[in-house]
From TrEMBL:
Species in which this protein is naturally found: Jiella flava
Primary localisation category: membrane
Protein name, entry field: Sn-glycerol-3-phosphate ABC transporter ATP-binding protein UgpC
PANTHER family in the record: MALTODEXTRIN IMPORT ATP-BINDING PROTEIN MSMX, OSMOPROTECTIVE COMPOUNDS UPTAKE ATP-BINDING PROTEIN GGTA
Family the UniProt entry places it in: Belongs to the ABC transporter superfamily.
GO cellular component: ATP-binding cassette (ABC) transporter complex, substrate-binding subunit-containing
Subcellular location field: Cell inner membrane
Pfam families documented for this protein: ABC_tran (PF00005), OB_MalK (PF17912)
Length: 370
């Protein structure tokens, strides 16, 4: 197991800088997820750690040793790819044992290693099959088995579940998590799927345009996103943003702001100036929606702290609840309502934005204020 240090690592292709001075310290046994939109550079970073891409500048250090110039096979890291990358002409057993045979391990040791890995992954009955006779999920399991038997210092996962259907992805995600609990091997996992990031990671590294935007536990990124990018990327449906400005008449203890909708209370500790522009974020699941007056429920007495009226634009039932799209002024926002939602487009509803659930961001730099 390994501690991996990425120190000021840069990557350029031709003259285009893809990664800009990335710093990241990964602790022994940690499960790190690199997440970000397509093209942000997460796969490139993983491939540099694996030795499949040259490092333009900076150092990659594993357990205190700089490995920039070490050949991939000498790094003792195992990579699992989205495309499985199995040898089609070899059986499952052949694929799993290949790297050990290459390293001239004794037969009994190889048999023990692949026996154990196939038990863990539920592949025992499939050992003589070839990849084309396996389902996508089974193929990915073989790829995982091939990585496990090498007992690497770390696993590098490059979007391993992207080719699987939703149900299988959910199942394999849980298996990867159990596998990590069992083996405790340092893991770096690349995905653009924020649910995978949230469920698997000890710490998430959120990337955008070649830079790290935030490093933290899933709860850190969800509860206290450092900026608008992270706030908008983590969470589904995504966080709502309301453009707001501090009212010029500021009451004593807490000031009010006027957004595209209801007035809200801003914590005094933010130190916002009268007239200052801010962006207020609120997650759909934190908005309380209810019938409009006179059948108003759940919002009584809360007016002035972010309650107001809105018009339903669309209701998407999800089974567990419904995503309620509503219009405040001209802007459409989304609320996640647990339980039945019988509203129709055009209905008037009340929306309440609980003060303690609000996120505040600078209107110019997008940085978190609270
Ligand atoms: N060999 C290459 N030559 C030139 N540009 C490249 C090369 N490999 C990657 N890039 C570019 O580097 C950027 C980052 O690519 P990378 O694959 O790391 O992104 P990513 O975040 O993993 O995206 P995805 O989720 O789509 O795989 C992209 O703009 C890509 O086009």
């Amino acid at each position: 197991m390994a501690e991996i240090d990425i120190r000021h690592v840069r990557k350029s292709f031709q003259n285009l800088e893809i990664l800009k001075a990335v710093d990241l310290s990964i602790r022994t046994g940690e499960f790190i997820v690199l997440v970000g939109p397509s093209g942000c550079g997460k796969s490139t970073l993983l491939r540099m750690i694996a030795g499949l891409e040259e490092v333009t500048a900076g150092d990659i250090v594993i357990d205190g040793k700089r490995i920039n110039d070490l050949a991939p096979r000498d790094r003792n890291l195992a990579m699992v790819f989205q495309s499985y990358a199995l040898y089609p002409h070899m059986t499952v057993a052949g694929n799993m044992s290949y790297s050990l045979r290459l390293r001239k391990f004794a037969q009994d040791r190889i048999a023990a290693a692949i026996g154990e890995a196939s038990r863990v992954l539920g592949l025992t009955a499939l050992m003589e099959r070839r990849p084309r006779a396996l389902s996508g999920g089974q193929r990915q399991r073989v790829a995982m088995g091939r990585a496990i038997v090498r007992e690497p210092q770390a696993f590098l996962w490059d979007e391993p579940l992207s080719n699987l259907d939703a149900r299988l992805r959910e199942q394999m995600r849980a298996e990867i998590k159990k596998l990590h609990r069992r083996l405790g091997t340092t893991s770096i996992y690349v995905t653009h799927d924020q649910i995978e990031a949230m469920t698997l990671a000890d710490r998430i590294v959120a990337m955008d345009a070649g830079t790290i935007q935030q490093i933290g536990t899933p709860a850190d990124l969800y509860d206290r996103p450092a900026n608008l990018f992270v706030a908008g990327f983590i969470g589904s449906p995504a966080m709502n943003f309301l453009h707001a400005r501090m009212a010029s008449e500021t009451p004593t203890r807490s000031a009010l702001i006027l957004a595209d909708g209801p007035r809200m209370t801003v914590p005094e500790t933010l130190g916002l100036q009268a007239g200052q522009a801010v962006i207020v974020g609120i997650r759909p699941e934190h908005i309380v929606v209810g019938d409009a007056a006179p059948r108003q429920t759940g919002v009584a007495g809360k007016t002035g702290t972010g309650a107001g009226e809105a018009i339903v634009d669309l209701v998407e039932p999800t089974g567990m609840g419904a995503i309620v799209h509503f219009r405040l002024d001209t802007v459409v926002h989304k609320a996640y309502h647990l339980g039945r939602a019988d509203w129709k487009a055009g209905d008037h509803i009340t929306v309440h934005f609980p003060t303690e659930r609000l996120h505040f961001f600078g209107a110019t730099d997008g940085r978190r204020l609270n």
